[in-house]
Sequence to fold (132 residues):
Amino acid sequence: MSGRFKPAANTYVRPVLGWWKTNPFYLWYMLREATAIFVVIYALVLLLGLICLAMGEGAYNGWRAALATPVSLVFHLILLLLVGYHSYTWFKVMPKTTPHIPIEPKVIVQTGCAVTAALSVLIVAVLWGVTR
Fold:
């Protein structure tokens, strides 16, 4: 009876932690997935600003003053880099998920990044002009 439940001699046991560190593809994949956390954090910062706006002018001005601190500026610079990387990786995935189209995948990625950058600059310029 005891031999019936004996494990096979060459049973594969998958490592539980750190398996993604051994393959560069998985390492970059996990980094892309981790950047989603920072996208959520930035969404929460913006949601807090909206809540402060609903609470009144004093709360909103306090939120804006908090965003003007050096710590917040560094935090936003890091968020900008991480969200930029997150967006870039999604543009890289896009050609793999679309039906076959006669365009090089590299062109799709470059066009997506260029349009995103141009729209971002345009939106910032418009908002900068509105607030001045």
Observations:
- The CA atoms of residues 7 and 13 lie 11 Å apart.
- The chain has a mean pLDDT of 86.
- The chain has four helices and no strands.
- The two ends are 83 Å apart (CA to CA).
